[in-house]
């Protein structure tokens, strides 16, 4: 448990709000305060700044954000491992502050760092977890066998976990999280550090799980592609707040049209003629120029390309390349967070280094 101070108690979650949602969090605030005096940031780090989410049962809900956005802190609060300074949260209908034991029974947690005992075998790790939840005898053996089979670990079940590959260890972590048949499974960045093959296998596994037994999965990720592929709904988190939420298609659909990227054969001396020329093309808007790169949105990108090339030609600019892309989650992030995902990632890395 963390040692930071709690400035105000969590308020109870209203019952009617809890009923329908598998996870319901309102206005979570959390500040990590430095332990000693004379630290660089005496005011502490505000990891959550009024974060709210509501997750309906049976879906994969993605919490997407760059490093340092507050995803793990949210998971810690929802899984009763940390206390919020203020706000309220309920999981599987239980208040995380008032009913932490019930919450813990209802959830499985796969943290960023493996919780498996490296010197025990895969099977023993699963058995131990089951026993912690009161499972015994044939029921436990059947459950462990089924999970070993399902996660393709049956052949390695008798080996010490320290001999497992990264992908096997992650699969074991998920299996451990599922032993006691939780209603809600928390997966905190489940594919970070995995090679592409193991990542694809884990994606397939998560997709399979989501369909099974009405399990609700709350997944945190800083991979745009992962959120796009797996999440039924997602919330984009930036600096401790949800900046926008919806299905990946809804979010991308809000950005009307395609992204058009034109690389000029030479730097354009002045932005205005470029903006003027492209602005005269039907359906083309939001034009920006950085050096040789022109970016714009177009209602129908492919159809606009000939007219765009002609317009640039008229003002004497040659074109080296043109690409047309459907809106991505990165575009959504840029629109709502005001900076690109990769810029946010590098800022948070620098912030982290400065702490
Ligand atoms: N125990 C702690 N003490 C001090 N600051 C912390 C602590 N844990 C997290 N933070 C800071 O709180 C902010 C949110 O961190 P958090 O780990 O929740 O983000 P995240 O989105 O999960 O990022 P990551 O993917 O890197 O884990 C960051 O600035 C982080 O450095």
Automatic annotation (TrEMBL):
Q: Which GO terms describe its biological process?
A: daunorubicin transport; doxorubicin transport
Instruction: Write down the superkingdom of origin.
Output: Bacteria
Q: Which GO terms describe its cellular component?
A: plasma membrane
Location in or out of the cell? Cell membrane
User: Known NCBIfam families for this protein?
Assistant: drrA
Instruction: Spell out the family assignment given in the record's similarity comment.
Output: Belongs to the ABC transporter superfamily. Drug exporter-1 (DrugE1) (TC 3.A.1.105) family.
The protein's name: ABC-2 type transport system ATP-binding protein
Q: Could you tell me which species this protein originates from? A: Streptacidiphilus jiangxiensis
Identify the taxonomic lineage of the organism of origin.
Bacteria, Bacillati, Actinomycetota, Actinomycetes, Kitasatosporales
